[in-house]
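hey all, quick one before standup. I had two proteins in the batch that finished overnight and I want to keep them in one place so we stop losing track of which output belongs to which input. First protein below, input sequence then structure tokens straight from the run.
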Amino acid sequence: MTRMSSFAIAALLGLAATGCVPDPAPDTVSPVVQTGLDATFAAAGAEFDVPPALLAAIGYVESRWQMVEGTPEFDGAVGKLGVMGLRTDALDATAARIGADVEDLRQDAASNVRAAAAQLADLASAQGIDRGSLDAWRPVVAAYAHIDDADAQARYVDGDVYGTLATGAFAYAESGELIARLEPQKVAAIAVTRAKAAGPDYAPAVWRSSPNYGSRPSGVPIWMVVIHTCEGNYAGCWGWLRNSAAQASAHYVVNESGSEISQLVREANRAWHVAASYACSHNGNYNCGKNGQSVNNFAIGIEHAGFASQASFPAGQIEASAKLTCDITRDHGIPRDRNHIVGHGQLQPSNRVDPGPNWPWSQYIDRVRTLCGDNGGGGGGGGSTGAIIVDSNNANNTASVARIELTGTWTSASSTPGYYGSGYWFADTSATAAPATFWFYLDAAGSHAVDAWWTAGPNRAAAAPFIAFNAAGSEVGRVTKDQRASGSKWTPLGTWSFTKGWNKIVLSRWTTAGAVVIADAVRVR
């Protein structure tokens, strides 16, 4: 059902390569994706007399079989840990139950699964169920979920866990190794009662109203979309946000596969999703006149089932979310750029990091633009249009087909809005060979149109040189572009013949002195 995307896994490698996050020591940090979980589920199931298929289904629902660690997204909620989504409020007792350390539960998938199996076994003993029947485990799964909302609990048990048992699931690592495979199981089909009404602002959504909202200040327009991760599974997320005790909400929640979206608060109302006042220094020094105002006054919040620490986000979830964001931005006239579509952690960095370093920002923004009919293309090195996009941040590139290389002194910036991805580089013009090189890999020789994206401004070069080279290193074309204009959109450079292998577009700074050239993104289509 799910294959780890090459884009997301490559983003992990790109982050370390570009210095955006520290490179963890391999002996202290376990990889997010650990393979061979079928044997792990089988061993833990045999040890604690729990069906291995049930362990696999719960792990899939909780984490998509990744070793995640979630800081609670909402005050009062409990964090989740590892493949099985162990609750972080009882880790000491959970570890002691299997004779392990808390770090074992955090680092080692086998220990994490064993701990969950022990918890399920204890619940089964307390309830006196028939352990030989998969269907008999339903009340045990309900207790394991710790979801108070009755509708959400039913969705978790019968719709998600037992739905996964019925259909099966599998996932592979980027290396091609099998993470886990769950074959379809014979379980009773139980219909899950769901809300009948469509979302009042987004018809494809299911209306599950939350009491946790207020009125927006009069005359304050909506101009921002905030991307969140729930730090947990879908049902637990919207179930908690409908609880008045939570004192938190979001306008929407997108499930893991993208097959369902819940709307909890009307867009016209003020959901409680960012516990911070706006500070333009966290958003490229954009719109500083809003400093000190609650972000919730002018933002719409979208929660996504999953974790900021996960290695990848399912393609279906990204697509569904992009369609939703396109609809929001179109209805409210919101520009589709990284000053207006932002991450929760970006605005509230003191205690939030979501949606995390592996949220595919370039792919996501480009997809939103494409769905809304903007001048966009395929995302992050191979989106739906088949284009390759080389961003200025290698964390946003698919390492197998796209990368940027800087020579000499370039300065990272995000102060001018309308950039592609998560920022751009600039350098002073001068008679020096110290370019920004946008590398892209082609499987076969052919003629390709090339576009470039930059942020425009009066200090930009009037004739920024772009030079195209094939994989043999031969120049195949060049053009100059006035970067004082035509900003924040794809501008055609030319159509040239490239060869199989690593070709490149070089942005030179060798032009009239006294200006800067902007290296933001290149698209090959």
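OK second protein, same deal, sequence then tokens:
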Amino acid sequence: MFKTNSFLFLKKFKVLSIIIFLTALFFFFFGIFFGLDFTDSFYHLNHALYPVNDVFLYPFLLSSALIKSIVDFTGPELIKIRFINSSLIFLSMLIPFLVVRITRSKWKILFYISCTLILLAPFNVNILSYDTLTIFINSVIFSITILYLKHPKFHLIITLSLLSGIAILIRLPNLLLLPILSGVIVFQEKVMNRRNIGQVLKPFFLYNCFAVIAVVAGYSYYYNDWNDFQEASMGSISHDTRGIVFMYLRDATKLLLFCLFILCSFFLFRKLRNRITSYLTYVILGLIHFAFLASFVVFSGYSWNYFLFLTALAISIVGIQLFNNSKTRFELKQKILFVFLLFIFIHPFGSNTGLLKAVSLLLLLPFLLSLIDLRFKKFWLIIIIVLVPISVVEKIYGTYEDKNILDLNMSLKTNKLNLVRTTETRAVYLRDVDVVVRELKEDGVEMFFYGDKSHIFHYLYPATSFGIKAFNQPMEDLIFLPCIEDKVIDKTKVAVFLMNSYPESTESIENVVEKELIKKGFKKSQKGSVEFLLKIEDQNFK
């Protein structure tokens, strides 16, 4: 009888795990159809597909090359690119399981993966860039690092060095991998009781030498000489160092606050579970977490605090596990947990979004949970149950640089944007711009788009770029006026579209670029809702 009940329970758990997984997978992927930014997505795509002077920028050389290869294979349709992006993120979660064998029940693993997919769904903002490729390559490197910790072989050190070189070519700030993995290698060699200092330092030097050689070889192969390399920079200062440090400190403070809250609630759980009923313990802790998250996370905007809380959750799980095993021998599992904590710093390094991108390491959490014997599982389950509805709300109402999903009821009919849904205002505006572009083109007018919100139009009309490498293209500053003048000064029929805001925005800023162009013979024109500057020297032009 007991065996029969156990079999039925296991069968139900398997069915439930499959249902939850399919639901989580749908929830993670369905967002690719919703929302349209004019900026980040297309900035990265343009630098990959239509690089200035046909030369990729060196800070993300390999990222651009890989994106171009992907788009050449799939086609330029945005929905396909978004699907590839989501697939790479999902695959990043599976890589450790594919590289390192886990004996844990596959149904538990499926449950861990499902929970992570649901919690991280708002993080999937549909931008295929060096961020997605960094997540992917870091997952591969983390997995190979585990193999090295299990079996410190020479070929694994060489593999790690080459992969690190690839990661740096994908995104230059991934240089942080070098000191982190160097420390891991030296520590591992010492643990192996290497008495000769040469035996300890030899793997260290091999790793760094081969990694540097891989990076130098990559740059040397692509760029002809040092001048070409220097010219392939960003072209302007896009990251303020002081601002980045401030954001790091701000986010670190929030992370500390969230970690302290989780740890306090953890110890409260341990106290309450022996004094009151289990049901009442779960209710109390659930209400405490809901109240805290509602106060500090739900109303934060741009999902920022939500992602920081997920990062704090991962840190707390690993930290408690390390603390509980602090008196035991430092074995493989503890090493893996420690390496996980070190990897948290790689993706945010050099980012102007502070520590926001550290949440990407949550993708490795299912593997960690499958590897360790997690204590007090019900406590962590309570947090997940509270977080799931918050994740759903963040996904629905936090569409990247667009309205909430419920308001995205217009499908775009252009070939590159087909199947993507956005607001009626944006859809109509894009259609109106397309009509104006076609009319001007028929009249022999050459067109250019400028401004922070012009990146989508460079993607739709590749010949309209001024060849500016920077993301920020300010209207209140004349820093790029020489680039504009160089393109339009000798044209007899030319139009300039100044895109300084989204079509639904009523924000007003001083447009000194427009004033300067008007001084040079341009006149303000408007067709429907589309405004632009036009210069026609042919008097017979109508």
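Flagging for whoever picks this up: Strands lie at 410-411, 421-422, 446-450, 493-498, 523-527, 530-536. Residues 246 and 354 are 8 Å apart (CA to CA).
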